[in-house]
Amino acid sequence: MNLQDYTLPQLQQLGARIAKQIAKQESAGKASVLKRMKDMAREHGLTLEEVLGAPSQAKPQKVSVGKAFAAPKAPLPIKYRHPSNKDLAWSGRGRRPGWVDAWLANGGALEALATAAQRFEKKQSRKALEASDAARTEAPVEAESALQG
Question: pLDDT tens for residues 25-84?
Fold first, then answer.
């Protein structure tokens, strides 16, 4: 068979037919192997699920001491934040996000993003402090009203 004699659409059609035939043969091959495995398991009084369902009994897994037991890393602190969109943040490590590149391309300074991040953190810590103060002042009032009620 000389493939150079075929046109592009004919070759594409031939490729599609070949892909279908490959899929059929793979499926038939898997079905054949699965049937043989089930027959072998049945000869030994087992089911295929019993044979394949217990990999820990077959042979123990090798355990590497390195990264397998390493504690999960804490997320890095935010070093840069977009001044007008507080959801856009970057730790300063890894590849620079697109919004940082756009900021710099438009004449913005990286220091402005760092300043925005610092201001955001201060604002968040103030809010948290106010919330904890409010919770402390409400607790005695609730306890006193419960005693009176």
Answer: 999 999 999 999 999 999 999 888 888 876 545 455 565 555 566 778 888 888 999 888
Q: Domains in the chain: how many in total? A: 2
pTM: 0.42
**Residue 17 lies in domain:** 3-52
Query: Do 80 and 139 belong together in one domain?
Result: yes
Domain assignment present for residue 57? The answer is no
Residues 138/142/143/145 CA torsion (nearest 10 deg):
140
Three-state SS string over 41-74 comes to HHHCCCCHHHHHCCHHHHCCCCCCCCHHHCCCCC
Whether residues 81 and 48 share a domain: the answer is: no
**Where on the phi/psi map is residue 92: left (φ > 0), alpha (ψ -120 to 50), or beta?**
left
pLDDT tens profile 70-87: 778 888 888 999 888 888
